[in-house]
Amino acid sequence: MTDKDHNQRIEILGYVLMLIIFALITRLVFLQIAHGQDYKRLSDNNRIKLMPIMAPRGLFYDRNNIPLVSNRPGFTVSLVPIEGPISENVINTLATYLNMKPEQIREKVAKLDNPLEPVRVKDDVGPDIVTKIKEHQDELPGVIIEIQSVRNYINKELAAHIFGYVSEISDAELEKKKAQGYKSGNIIGKFGLEQVFDKEIRGEDGGSQIEVDVNGRPMRMLGRKEPVLGNSLVLTIDAKIQKAAEQAIDNRLRYLQTRLGNINAKAGAAVVLNPKTGEVLAMVSRPTFNPNDFNGGISAKNWKAINDNPFNPMSNRAIAGEYPPGSTFKIITGTAALELGKVTPEEKILDTGHHWLIPKGNAMGEALGWISFKDALSKSDNVYFYEMGNRLGIDNLERYARQFGLGAPTGIELKGEAEGLVANQRYKQEVYGEDWYLSETFDAAIGQGFQLATPIQMATVMSQVANGGHRFRPYLVTKELAPDGSVAKTFQPEEVGKVDISDRTLNLIRSALYDVARPGGTAAYVFDGFPIPIAGKTGTAENPHGDDHGWFVAYAPFDNPTVVVAVVVEQGGFGSDSAAPIARKILEKRKKPDTPNQSTQTRLPRSNLSYSKNRKGGQLPSFPILAYLRPAVIVPPTSAYRRAS
Predict the structure, then answer these.
(1) Which of 24, 47, 455, 533 has the highest CB neighbour number within 10 Å of its CB?
(2) 552 forms bridges with which residues in the sheet?
(3) Which range, of 350-359, 412-421, 595-604, averages the lowest pLDDT?
(4) Residues 502, 559: one domain?
(5) What percentage of the chain has pLDDT greater than the value 70?
């Protein structure tokens, strides 16, 4: 080989080497400059995970600043995709430990929007599950345990239908709320105030950047954003009155079933209002449920107990239960008759036990003889009010019923409120295609037939009698509080209607209702010895599906009303037996006139979640405390009116 050939080969080798170096540099530029960020992201996906931290929801306080709904830390089982899709083996094993179907976990994985985020599989798991997962961590790569905020209903069933419950967002809800920032796996309000104020109380989620090893175990924190507590709510309800009302209903239902033989008296409702403002002081519906059972998804056992209950514990009967109002409707019939001059207070009508036009009469055929308006209302005489219906006609009855707010929702914040039904000719013609009969006017005049009302509607009717004819929209929330305790929003009383009623008529109605709880009245034996003068009205509503429903509506004190009570007991029989004793127990917890205590300060309780910041406390408004009156002893009935409506 000549030197010339040798030099040529070295020169070619140099060119090849330069070409290789150029190709490597070009590839390096391509990888690090043109697509460097893409490959860095892919690397970080395997090394860094975004761990969302759910914001604690705002707290609920009663009117006296007593916390009723709070948050607590709970364990959440999550899946972290590390190197591609979660394996079927991990899904099947985890499903066994969590007592879930593998399909449920697969559905959650499929909904994941961001591959960096963990898939939240099950919230609020017990320590036994946490221990089991930790013991088998090697078999479950990518399975982690997070500590997240869990809703805590402090008194369990107390006010469940007011508060509602929270649970994971459904596909249908996500479709509607995605534009508002909701994501798959979010916990949202499903019912009650939790649902209505979800946007205000859900807070702002935080998160952490966590470096994980090949098994998905956290190694170190790279960054953190603290969650922000949602707005809290100060409610109108009084926890002590709420507890008294719930206990009174529970005890009376047991008594009716075991002592009076009303075996189907298993449902009812009560509403307590401030007649001067429309504030709801208490609201009870029975049967009920424990909202805590829905945390982490309700168990099959608990859901079966709810679903199989024929009395539907999830129904808020206080606003959605529609019942014939029975003799409580006589307040409206009497108002219409007096205002339109169809009867005078002095006129007496002969009650022979049955009306002379249509054979309809009093309970058990009782005859009260010649009777005037005041006695007829206090003794709940059917024959007298049949005649009032005869003189008024159905159209006038309808007009005054609507003036009192019947036949339309009251407008309370809660969803699912029923509108009831005011008996009228148009309804019968449209629904049944039939003409109206006089006998149906008679039924309507005493709150039967087509008439339907909810407990909250009857509470507003009684409020209008108590306050002079003003109809306020019932409401449950007085303030929204920001996380620092400052007032973000206030809610004021709202007058939505007024009854056209003269002082003379109003005073006569009140006087008759005052006599209901005095000797000779239909609730006399229930309120015997009661230390506060009240005005009330019993009612017994015929029920074609079983025993009669019992009603009682009242306000107290008589001379300066500060509280209205409406109670209904399904299949409880006579209102004096079933509903009136409940109302008495509630009225024993009546509140004093408002005297705000300016020295009272309450801080928002600090969260017990390790990731929450300590927030600056703020002053909450002070409210009056309750006056506790001596317990009442209900004596056995001695009056002939015990069995009247």
Answers:
(1) 455
(2) 538, 567
(3) 595-604
(4) yes
(5) 84
